[in-house]
From TrEMBL:
Name of the protein this chain belongs to: enoyl-CoA hydratase
Keywords linked to the UniProt accession: Lipid metabolism, Lyase
MF (Gene Ontology): enoyl-CoA hydratase activity
InterPro entries referenced in this protein's UniProt entry, alphabetically: ClpP/crotonase-like_dom_sf, Enoyl-CoA_hyd/isom_CS, Enoyl-CoA_hydra/iso, Enoyl-CoA_hydra_C
Family assignment from sequence similarity: Belongs to the enoyl-CoA hydratase/isomerase family.
SUPFAM superfamilies: ClpP/crotonase
Record has Lipid metabolism as a keyword: yes
GO terms for biological process, alphabetical: fatty acid beta-oxidation
Keyword Lipid metabolism assigned: yes
Amino acid sequence: MLKVTRHGDGGHVVELALDRPESMNAINNAIAEEIAAVTGELAADPSVRAVVVTSTHEKAFCVGADLKERNTFTDAQMMEHRLVSRRAYRGVLDLPVPAIAAVDGYALGGGMEIALSCDLIVAGEGATVGLPEVGVGVIPGGGGTQLLTRRVGWSRAASMIFTARRLKAAEAHELAVVDEVVPAGTARDRALELAATVARNSPVAVRNAKKAMRLGSGTDLASGLEIEDGCWRATAFSGDRAEGVAAFNEKRVPDWPGR
């Protein structure tokens, strides 16, 4: 249900492909457990420099929760599933390296929340995105109410969530819901290209830049600058910094030690 592929020299770019085609990648308990487990392993792997989340289904990234499965749950089972699904979304969100979602086709509900848990979203021209949960009596519970609001602002997020509106790729890009729109069927290729570009940079610097941005974004400016200073110090006295300066002066490609 989740295909893991390493790309490039050294396998520094990891692709996580949602692979439950019979349900258009609807999130059931099993795939949620797998996402939580795999992202936990990747977070602890220092060789990983970027993660790309894709789909093996040409018409869907992920259509959200598996409502057929949920329809069979008791209240107790629903709460058990809630814990598993929260670990899955947080697993993507808490990756210490940049994560890029490649969205072709539908990204709805929990599927859109997987994309929002990534740092960048690349969408194919035929993509349709949205958080339609209120239409079936629930709310976005995989981070959608928080992540979309932080991404696009209160009024735009409120319009999407309260109306359960679905957006085509062009409108989603105009509203900053997605970061880039590419020809239909090429989102995966573009996301992997971006990830390869990220992976060529210092892994220590990229990880610390993401850490500073994520931790600082929820604080006041003064606190954010202190967080940035701590991350700068952790980078400035690293082996990557020494290698980067040496490579620049010697006019060669850096060989990052990653520490």
